[in-house]
Amino acid sequence: MRPRRLPALLVVLALLLAASAGAAKPIAHREVLPNGIVLLVAERPAIPIVVVRTFAHAGAVLDPPDRAGLANLTGALLTRGTAKHSGPELDSAIEFVGGSLSAGAARDGLTASLSVLKKDVGLGLDLLAEVLLTPTFPDDELKRKAAQIQAAIKRSEEDPGTVAGRALAKLVFPSHPYGVPVEGTVESVGKLTRDDVVRFHRGYVRPDTTIIAVVGAVTVDEARREIVARFGGWKAPAEPPPTVSSVTPGATPQTQVIEKELTQATILLGRQAIRQTDPDYFPLTVGSYVLGGGSASRLYSRVREEGGLAYAVYSYANPARYGASFIVSAQTRTAEVPKVVEIMREELARMTREPVTERELKLAKDYLIGSFPLRLDTTSKVADFIVAVEEQGLGLDYADRYKERVAKVTAADVQRVAAKYFAPDTFNRVVVGAPKP
Amino acid sequence: MRPFLVATLVLLLAAAGASAQSSAERVLAATLENGLRVLLQEDHRSPVVSFQMWYRVGSRNEARGATGIAHFLEHMMFKGTPTYGQGQFARLVEQNGGQDNAFTSQDVTSYYVNIAADKIDLVIELEADRMHNLKLDAKDIASEREVVIEERRTRTEDDPGGFLGEEVGAIAFRSHPYGPPIIGFTEDIKRITPEEIRAFYKAYYMPNNAILVAAGDFKAAEVLAKIRAKFGKIPRGTPPPPVLAVEPPQNGERRVIVSKQAQLPIVYLGYHVPNQKSGDAFGLEMLSSILSEGRASRLYKRLVYQRQIALEAGGDYNYFSQDPNLFWFWATPMPGQTPESMEKALLAEMETLKTEPVTEEELQRAKNQVEAAFVFQEDSVHRRASLLARFELIGGYADKDRFVERLRAVTAADVQRVARTYFSDDKKNVGVLLPRP
């Protein structure tokens, strides 16, 4: 198998990257309910399933500095007990009808996801409303979940990609919550209390910052009726929603080597970049594709096809609500680390020095625009996409604008933006692996 | 592929659905004169198509000393033909907004292109070309060899789960080629010659050893005509030799203990079980669901949730295996727990399955989950096409429609009987990974 797709983590990002549409019809219906909930509905009548995603601005960016992992723990506990049902009762109820209900936090938000057959949508929404509005956070569930998270953090130390990613985030965002792992640390999770979780939920999981997307075999009227019936009475707290600072520029780029007994080294280069609201984001996306996006990219050709130096090598922009990064990544045998780093640096520099060829430019644009239908070909993908564009404030017509903007990018644009963001000396570097072959 | 053992099992499980609706009436099935089997399923919800080639060759068909050759050849399938040279396949697919990839399993090698439906002619052309005209240049083989070894480092050498899975495979099979890893041993990957790869290609890549499946927004009759025009010209080949090895009965427990830098231990258990040709297959399939599907499933609920001794635990049966294979159990003990106590806990669960029938609720839930999974599967053209291929590989795509019905017929007594029949101590293969700091 050839890993040319981005890691699963970046699925939503990938959706945004590839967005464009020929569709004349808006991708979803949007309305704001009186209590501030943004309701998005996309009808897909052919298959009798319904997918619902809720997104609240209650991500790890809101973790207090000494409470890393709080959003993550809160999210994980939502399905572990409500005013009406214990955790195991919730599990049994949804799984008995072959559905699923889960919740969890990421950097910017807390998401709950429901998938059910159409005939069970009433039951599914009842349970979804319970977990969002009336979670009870039982003490024993909190202890259990905290111990599981701590064990998972411990185990993740054996995954070189995770170790490298954590180290790089800290270097790229040294003074912002984005530099702190969403799951926290073994120590910080150990300190979290039920009071912390209750306060976090009460303050930040609130209707006036919540998006609810309903996609599948459901009409707009049905969706509105069912959502209003369950979430219409949800009231926002008196205090205003929290504000979060955007990232501040990174410090002087650094290099960090983390030694592990491994046969292969994981190399990450990373720096801050820009998000979709910056007009330069489109040339950046095209440039990244030419550099390390597909099987015809410069890095793939030199590092993998010609050099046989790596199985996985790629570059990508990683935008989030309060900041963005640009990453170049490869895994190679220990002895070849210097050579691969050198190729990465050379190719980054070449992007700043000379314009990409017309052929490369066309391929990147054709792919980014032409692969759009594949990004929206399942119910879950549509739900992820509409939540992401709403959450990032891009507008439901973002798909069309994206296509137009990508189509307009020139080789000169790419070079100009590369000069700003691809200069090799501006990248932090993390290597996880054995010190010597 | 085989990212690591557990992930592979989960993937297979995900593929093991069936369809609530009859697929037979909507599938155009044909066998060309040269033996190519073609299955076409129209699905007009999105303007996309999933086009898949499934070759009946995997690590099962490999000889000792040449393990990994099927997977090596999968990599080489992207390296060009005289008509479409090095890199052209990927470039053409990307230029047309498509996504492609491939995987190799014990039984099959599968290639897919997901692309806008109006590009299907291009894919037919490319796939027909590389079925018959692959270049297999010695220089390309030399550089790709290094890439495959890097892939092995990622998946096996540096991944504790993959590392242990390979060891358990080695003790469980003494005669059948399911023992060695799909990716092959490093020694073999290094040794395999271009001549051997060319011979392997010639022996297995032919129309009468392949299944072409497509699902998506097309007119089946038109596409069939196009397939005939391109693939029909490829001559029928000499049928590949059958796999004759039959794994002899296991006469006592086998155990392997490995030590590796890791954070937590891992325990794997593998029991020899029959494949779908046996009447017990549906009982085993149900058992697998009851044990592992969701948070209400038995192993999760008891070992992870109630007793809190495992970070994760599950069991899986591969219904689609061409030859009899293993029923796997896996568990990761929580910090402070030993692999010995973990193994005991798993065995105690098996004893319970033998002595007490599963509850009606457990059985009903598992059946509902499988049935719902088949409906969810219909949401993706990629998954629809894959499932048709999987059923075709074991006897006929139309069996897909009887699968749910036959699962529905499984009783608690059946589940108890299969547990008693197959989970005996002297048929156990145990793998333990002891973490080294």
Describe the structure.
The complex is a heterodimer of chains A (437) and B (437). With 437 residues, chain A is α+β, with helices and mostly antiparallel strands. Chain A folds into 2 domains: 23-231, Cytochrome Bc1 Complex, Chain A, domain 1 (2-Layer Sandwich), CATH 3.30.830; 255-433, Metalloenzyme, LuxS/M16 peptidase-like (Cytochrome Bc1 Complex, Chain A, domain 1, 2-Layer Sandwich). Chain A is 43% helix and 18% strand. Chain A contains 17 helices and 11 strands. In chain A, the strands form 2 sheets. A 6-stranded mixed β-sheet of chain A has the order 1-2-6-3-5-4, with helices on both faces. Chain A has a 5-stranded mixed β-sheet with strand order 7-11-8-10-9, with helices on both faces. The longest helix of chain A has 18 residues, at 139-156. Chain A is globular, with a radius of gyration of 22 Å. Residues 3-23 of chain A have low confidence and may be disordered. In chain B, 44% of the residues lie in helices and 19% in strands. In chain B, strand 4 and strand 5 form a beta hairpin. In chain B, the strands form 2 sheets. In chain B, strands 1-2-6-3-5-4 form a 6-stranded mixed β-sheet, sandwiched between helices. Chain B has 2 domains: 34-231, 2-Layer Sandwich (Cytochrome Bc1 Complex, Chain A, domain 1), CATH 3.30.830.10; 254-436, Cytochrome Bc1 Complex, Chain A, domain 1 (2-Layer Sandwich), CATH 3.30.830. Chain B has helices at 5-15, 69-76, 88-95, 120-132, 138-157, 160-172, 186-191, 194-204, 220-231, 281-292, 298-306, 339-355, 360-377, 381-393, 400-408, 412-422, and strands at residues 27-31, 37-42, 48-55, 99-104, 109-116, 210-216, 254-261, 266-273, 310-316, 325-333, 428-436. In chain B, helix 10 (281-292) packs across helix 16. At the A-B interface, helix 3, helix 5, helix 11, strand 10 and helix 13 of A face helix 3, strand 4, strand 5, helix 5 and helix 11 of B.
